[in-house]
Sequence to fold (245 residues):
Amino acid sequence: MSLISIPNEKGDIPTFVSKPKGDGPWPGVVIIHDALGMTEDLRNQARWLAQEGYMAVAPDLFHWGGRVSCLVKTMRDLVKGDKGRVFDDIASVKTWLEAQVDCTGKVGIVGFCYGGGFALALAPNHGYSAVAANYGAVADWGWPKLEGSCPIVASYGKEDPTLKGEAAKLEEALSEYKIPHDIKEYEGAGHGFMNQHDSEDSSWIFKILSWVSNTKYNESATMDARERIVNFFDVYLKNLGITGS
Fold:
C-alpha cells in the first residue's frame, strides 16, 4: 500500500495503490472519490477492495487545485459529457493499471457521489468490465448514452433528497438497453452512506451540503452494498459465474 505518482501530460497524478496479499496478477479497480477528494476514507475503500482480491488504485483528482474550484470545474465537464481533465486523468490511471504485471488487464471502476456520476459516464465505451456507481447521478443527456454500457451495480439511499427517483430511472434505462445490472435503494440511508469521513475532512461548506443531502454513514447498508459490489465484480472481473438482471 503506497502513494505513487502516475504520469500525465498535464501533471503527475498522486494515486493510492493497495494490493491483495500473495502473488498476482489480480483484476484491477479504479476508485473515484467523492467531493472531498483524497481522504482516509478513500484509502480505506482501496484497502477493502484489495482484501477482496483486487488491485485497487485511488487517484487524487483534485491534485491540480483547491477542492472547491476543482469540484466546480470537473462537475461542469461531467454535465457536458465525457471529456475534460478528470476524464483524462482517469484514463491515464486506467492505462497505467492495465500495464502492471500484477494486473490481469480486466479493470472495473467504483465511484462515490460525484465519483458515482463519473463512473456511470464511463460505463459505455471506455473499456471497463464492470462499474459500481454509489449514489451517482446521471445528467439528463446521459440516459440515452447508457446504451452499450458494461455491467453496472449501483446503490442509493432512499432518504437522499438529492437523488429522488434516480435508482428507478437507472433500473428502467438499463433494463431497456438489456445491460446486466444490480440496482438497490436502501431504506433508512441517505446520501454518502458508504463514506465514513473524519470531521476535519469537511469544510463548513461541505458540512452544509451534507446536511442538505442527509449524508450520513450507515454501516448495515454499507456492508450489504459492499457484498453486492464484490459479488458483481467477482462475476465480471474474475469470471466466477453469472449474476445481475
